[in-house]
UniProtKB/TrEMBL annotation:
The lineage of its organism: Archaea, Methanobacteriati, Methanobacteriota, Stenosarchaea group, Halobacteria. It is a multi-pass membrane protein. Gene3D superfamilies: MFS general substrate transporter like domains, Multidrug resistance protein D. GO terms for cellular component: membrane. Residues 27-549 form the Major facilitator superfamily (MFS) profile domain. The chain crosses the membrane at residues 24-49, 61-81, 93-112, 118-141, 153-174, 180-198, 219-241, 261-279, 309-327, 367-384, 396-415, 436-454, 526-545. Residues 555-570 have a biased composition (Basic and acidic residues). Keywords: Membrane, Transmembrane, Transmembrane helix, Transport. This is Major Facilitator Superfamily protein. InterPro entries: MFS, MFS_dom, MFS_trans_sf. Residues 551-576 are annotated as: Disordered. It is found in: Membrane. Pfam families: MFS_1. One of its GO terms (molecular function) is transmembrane transporter activity.
Length: 576
């Protein structure tokens, strides 16, 4: 029979072991929860747009501008912000970023006009998010190794997927039954919880000899990122190459030679990144500290991972743009029901992203990624086959879950594989590049997939009305009608839509409903096939990945000696 003393010792050991376990996994918990509230924040904002339009007495375009500016600020600052852990305490950088984020959240929650909303949500929160996103990868890289690192990245991926899925549910419920402001306020509680776990993050900077900020590289990276993302954001509305509609800023129109502004922004962005690479190369040859070391930019396994990660973000952006719109606009689901329909995705993605990291002992990580990509493609084909009036949440459950399982398999391996290709000392810079890639890929996916989907839908509506009226128009006139319909729909609120519908006869309303439904089904099917094409491109990109998780730290000594030799040769050449 155990004595009281042995029972007490057993309880003490259990308590000590539990405490040690919590402390060990605290960094993973901290960054996973951080990612969760940032992703949740974006979902809440999207759901609340109609309510904000009414409350601020403004237009949809103005509120969507806040979303676009948030994306721009994050994309512009994410690369220079990613290098902060190389110069400052990682724990302090995380804590300060969370406090700034909380400040932006507070400002957004009490905003009394769109200017204050832009300040709190777009500028302050966007700046904090630019620090947070790359920092999450850096914290996991320095905190864990081997299987534990894979598990931590899997947890991060799963939690991120859950955030994007339940965001519309929470946002819809709060917006409907309380206020969208509570969505921001509740995030303050989340920040408080995260700060508790953040105390166990490493207090040390990545580098023992912090270098000064590369101001030239920072400026060029901001120009490149901002211009590319702006170009993608403008392309859907104003066209990719030829002017689709006038682009007016203030009272000045910018459509040189009849071109779209998007092509100019994209050109400046590409030139900016080309100049950035050249500048970084010249800076490193001069023996100075570039924003991103050259060996990171030329690391083939790392670049293969960045390419695959970028392609995956394009597919993800496209899917999460069209699917909720389809569910709500055609099938008539509420934001809550849309979240329920996506629940199988959420459950499958978190299950496969957290359970499968150890499968790399038996199957090549590259093979697991490719199996996941195939699952995503098959799921999209199944959704294509189901698209129609008889589609239900139950019927969608299997393909949606299969898509989530595919995403989970990919994310369980790709981030770890990509970040592990770079020595830990340079994980901050690598994390910044990976997040820039994600931002650009997400904006590209939204632009390409979103503009194709909406163009197909509005074109289908125009064609349906013309057929009903037995009218024939030229291609140019059809384009003008599509653009006019887009502009009318963009500025219309629920009240103006209802006002328009009450002016129609029951037969006219029924005809319009049938035309809208047919156009949306056609647009959904066509866009799902386009997504399948991007999935095939993603599969091709994955063939460039290494078969196993790289161990860059094994070659760190060789790398450092090589860098010393390069620096020594540079100094000798200078002396000569």
């Amino acid at each position: 029979m155990p004595t009281d003393e042995s029972t007490s010792n057993g309880s003490t050991r259990l308590s000590t072991g539990l405490k040690a376990g919590v402390q060990y996994w605290a960094p993973a918990i901290a960054v996973s929860l951080t990612t969760f509230i940032v992703v949740l924040n974006a979902s809440l904002m999207n759901v609340a747009i109609p309510t904000m339009v009414d409350e601020f007495d403004t237009t949809v375009t103005v509120i969507q501008g806040a979303v676009a500016l948030y994306s721009l600020v994050t994309a512009a600052l994410v690369l220079p912000a990613g290098t902060l852990p190389s110069r400052h305490s990682i724990r302090r950088v995380l804590a300060v970023a969370l406090l700034v984020y909380a400040g932006g959240t507070l400002v957004a929650s009490i905003s009394w006009n769109t200017t204050i909303l832009y300040l709190g949500w777009s500028l302050i929160q966007g700046s904090a998010a630019a620090v947070i996103f790359p920092l999450t990868f850096t914290v996991l890289i320095i905190s864990y190794e081997d299987d534990d690192r894979a598990k931590a990245f899997g947890l991060l991926a799963g939690v991120s997927g859950v955030g994007s899925t339940i965001g519309p549910i929470i946002g819809g419920a709060l917006t409907t039954y309380a206020s969208w402001r509570w969505g921001f306020t509740l995030q303050l509680v989340g920040v408080g919880v995260i700060l508790f776990f953040a105390q166990y993050v490493s207090p040390n900077p990545l580098s023992e000899t912090p270098s000064s900020l590369d101001k030239g590289g920072t400026a060029l990276s901001i120009v490149g990122s901002t211009s590319l993302v702006t170009g993608f954001l403008l392309s859907g509305k104003y066209g990719w190459l030829v002017e689709r509609r006038p682009f007016v800023v203030g009272e000045m129109q910018f459509n040189p030679f009849g071109t779209s502004p998007a092509i100019w922004f994209l050109g400046v962005g590409l030139l900016g990144f080309a100049a950035f690479v050249q500048y970084e190369r010249r800076l490193e040859r001069a023996g100075k500290s570039p924003l991103v070391p050259l060996h990171v930019l030329t690391n083939r396994p790392f670049l293969a991972g960045v390419l695959t990660y970028n392609m995956r973000s394009i597919v993800s952006a496209g899917f999460f743009f069209i699917f909720p719109v389809y569910l709500q606009a055609v099938l008539g689901y509420t934001a809550f029901e849309t979240g329920v329909a996506l629940l199988p995705y959420s459950l499958a993605s978190i299950l496969f992203s957290t359970v499968t990291p150890n499968w790399r002992k038996y199957i090549s990580p590259r093979t697991l990624i490719q199996i996941g990509i195939v699952c995503m493609g098959v799921a999209l084909v199944l959704l294509y086959e189901q698209t129609g009036p008889s589609q239900t949440i139950v019927r969608m459950a299997l393909p949606v879950a299969l898509y989530g399982a595919g995403v989970g398999l990919v994310l369980a391996q790709i981030t770890n594989m990509t970040m592990s290709a770079v020595p830990t000392a340079y994980s901050a810079e690598a994390s910044g590049i990976l997040n820039v890639s994600y931002s650009i890929g997400f904006s590209l996916g939204t632009a390409v997939i979103g503009s194709y989907f909406l163009g197909r839908f509005y074109g289908g509506v125009v064609d349906g009305v013309l057929r009903a009226e037995h009218e024939t128009v030229s291609a140019e006139q059809r384009t003008d009608l599509v653009i006019a319909l887009e502009d009318a729909a963009e500025t219309a609120t629920d009240a103006t839509q209802q006002q328009f519908l009450t002016q129609l006869t029951p037969a006219q309303r029924q005809l319009l409903e049938e035309i809208f439904e047919a156009a949306m089904f056609d647009a959904q099917r066509a866009t799902l096939l386009l997504l399948v094409l991007f999935v095939l491109l993603l599969l091709i990109a994955s063939t460039f990945l290494p078969r196993q998780i790289p161990d860059a730290d094994a070659g760190t000594d060789h790398l450092e000696s090589s860098q010393d030799a390069t620096r020594e040769a540079s100094e000798t050449a200078t002396e000569d």
